[in-house]
Every structure is written in C-alpha cells, then in structure tokens.
Amino acid sequence: MSAELKHKQATAPAVQVRGLNVVYATNQGDLPAVRQVDLDIEARKITGIIGESGSGKSTLVMAMMNAVGKPGQIVSGSVEVLGVGDMLSIDRERQRKARGKELGLVFQAAQNSLNPLRRIGHQVLDLGRSHDVKDLRDLLRKAKDLLTRLGMDADRVLASYQHELSGGMRQRVGIMFALILDAKIVILDEATTALDMLSQASVLEIVRELHKERGLTTILVTHDMGVVADMADRVVVMYGGEIVEEGPSEFVLSHPAHPYTQGLVRAIPRISGDIDRAVPLQGAPADLKTYLEPGCPFYQRCPVAMPKCQESRPTSLAVSQDRKVACFKVTDHD
Ligand SMILES: Nc1ncnc2c1ncn2[C@@H]1O[C@H](COP(=O)(O)OP(=O)(O)O)[C@@H](O)[C@H]1O
Ligand SMILES: [Mg+2]
Question: Which atom of ligand 1 is nearest to 58's Cα?
Fold first, then answer.
C-alpha cells in the first residue's frame, strides 16, 4: 500500500453525511426536521452533537443508521460509513447487519427499546443469533464483563426483565447492547440523562475508557454543554434541524462564534467562567414550523440579527481550518 493511500485511510472520516434531509409527515404536510446536513465524523474521536430539545439531534443520528421511523422519512442524502458503504442505499440486509456490528446505537428511549417479555440475557442471545454470532457463550461473557464494568450485578441483570430494572439501569443495559458486537462506531443519544449526576459522571468515565481502549468513534448526543466540555474532541451544534457551528470543542467552547452557541455557553457559568453572569437563553426553541420560514432559524431569538437574516438562510461556511459556522454576522465580510 502506498504511503499516500495509508494516510488517506488513516484520516478518512468514519461517517460522511451529505445533503441529508429528513421530514415528518404532520397534518400540516411534510415538515423538515433535518435540513441539508453535511457532516464528517472524525474516526477515533468523540464528537458531541449538542442543541436544545427539538433541534433534530435524534432524527439526525437515526437517519445515520437509516432507522428513521414513521411518520418520519429521509427525503435525500447519503451517509457513507467507513467499511460499510452508503447506509441509505445498500441493501436492507446489509443495513440490518451494520446496525449493531459496525454502528452501535443507544437510543434516547433506551428505557423502552428493550423487549418487555424477554429476560435481558435472552435478548443478548437473540441479538447474537440475528447477527450470526457463532460463540454465544462468549457473547454472554462479554455482556457480563460490560455490565460489571458499568457497575451492575451482571448475573442479576441478565436474569431480569426490563420492568425489574430502574431507568438508570436500563440505560446502562442499552450501552452494553451498543458495545457487545464490538461496533467501532458508537452513538449515545442522551444515554446518561436518566442518571443522577454521580452515576452520569461514572458512566461517562467508563464510556471514555472504552472509547480509548477500543479505538472507537464515539458520537455523544446531548443537550448538556457540560458533557460536551468534559468529553468531546469535536462539537457539532444543531439548531432548527441544521448544523449552525462545528469545530474542535475546546476552541468552540472558548470562542463560540454563532450567537446560538454563544448563548448556550453563556448559560453555563462553569464553562463561561463567569459564575455571576449565567444568562439563560431567551425565547422558545425552534419547532418544525419555524423551519419553514425563509430566514435563519435562530432569527427570532438572535441578539445580533440583521434584516438580511429574516430573508435568507445562511449556509455553513469554513471560517478557519476545521471550523464552520452558519451565520451572516460571522461569515459576511463586505
Ligand atoms: N415522530 C415524530 N412526529 C412528528 N414530529 C417529530 C417526530 N419526532 C420528532 N419530531 C419533530 O422533529 C423535530 C426534531 O426532533 P428530534 O430529532 O427528536 O430533536 P432532538 O433529538 O434534538 O430533541 C422536533 O421539532 C420534533 O418535534
Ligand atoms: Mg433527542
């Protein structure tokens, strides 16, 4: 293999999203929930996807697995997964195999995604069989190891039904399921939000360890800037179904460029460093109807909006190497 090819493979993004559009059918017609998203997920890094509730984070990661459920629909785009192909166009069986084997997902609703009628241990075996795992005993051993690391009594959990576990325990079980087939790309959608602060910190610490040990590409979806600050190498900020800012998290959090990111950072004194001046974000988050307006989705709440922002939508532009922002105030130089 040539040195150049080797370098290319080493630096190829783990996931490449292009021109992704997802809508939900409502009684007002199809409304866009993810709009024209282009995104590279860097391999072996932790990428945080942040935004208020309703900004399209879950829809985006579900679309990355081609698992958007009705009334949602992927309208256009591609999701190129390293070693798999375009999740949106490969055949269904290959997609199904990739979910779990290459892409591990902990749903936001992990609490409800378990089968209520089967013991957790049986569900581990079901998953193994559906992915042609030969050594099921070994799979159970892996499940035990993971559950133990996640701070649980593994034998008890494997013998339990979902209703016998607390919300926090179910979330940990969800994390176990995402990792058990050795997926290299792992998506955690608000996977620690049902946990109290202490448990959240300890589970995130374990996620960080596993990420390092296994050389994972980890996507951490959260509405908590603190989690991004503690965990993520890169951050992707979503608002109104669009990516409004992205870049190295340290840099984005210390020098947020988009007024929305600035608002998110200012609301958290621990990050802004200014305890006396925590300023909560004003106004209500965008909803699907906001998205239909022609201007910037953040226009209504933006403290520095210009007339132009109401009329047209800023596109995401590189403002420096490695950093993109969708805001006229930042990208217009005339
Ligand atoms: N099943 C659904 N039917 C209709 N609208 C939906 C559905 N799921 C999500 N939405 C809408 O899509 C938008 C994005 O939602 P979601 O991806 O869940 O955001 P987030 O994960 O950032 O909270 C929201 O406005 C939400 O109300
Ligand atoms: Mg969500």
Answer: 21
